[in-house]
């Protein structure tokens, strides 16, 4: 190779910080660069097929994240409601023992961290 242009296609594959003001760049060139880009394109095509989205993949991923967050909120709300129902059930089963209130029940799959 006599000139920089002889390396052909050049693709940066990774960039990291090594120290303050110093970056490390990893790259591939020539046939390896083509293979690298083709692999990435293949992954994108698979994702588009899986998401049934032939348009903007970024918007489809954003929608998935939004849907997941909504499902998480709904799940957390249902868990709180279920926990409250368990507490209400325990309160209804209150017994008096020696002038003291006694609460007793088994809570299956309870999560002590619910607030």
Salient structural properties:
21% strand; 2 helices; 115 residues; single chain; 2 domains; alpha+beta; 49% helix; 4 strands; two-stranded antiparallel sheet
Your description of this structure?
The protein has helices spanning 31-50, 57-92; strands at residues 10-19, 22-29, 95-97, 100-102. The protein is α+β, with helices and mostly antiparallel strands and 115 residues long. It folds into two domains: 1-50, no CATH class; 55-115. The strands form two sheets. A two-stranded antiparallel ribbon has the order 1-2. It has a two-stranded antiparallel ribbon with strand order 3-4. A hairpin with a 2-residue loop joins β1 (10-19) and β2. The radius of gyration is 29 Å and the shape is elongated.
Topology:
Layout: E1 10-19, E2 22-29, H1 31-50, H2 57-92, E3 95-97, E4 100-102
Antiparallel strand pairs: 1-2, 3-4
What sequence of helices (H) and strands (E) makes up the elements?
EEHHEE
Strand content: 15-25%
Helix share of residues? 40-55%
Question: How far from one another are the termini?
Answer: 67 Å
Choose one word for the global shape: elongated
Quick structural overview:
The protein has 115 residues and is α+β, with helices and mostly antiparallel strands. The chain has 2 helices and 4 strands, in the order ββααββ.
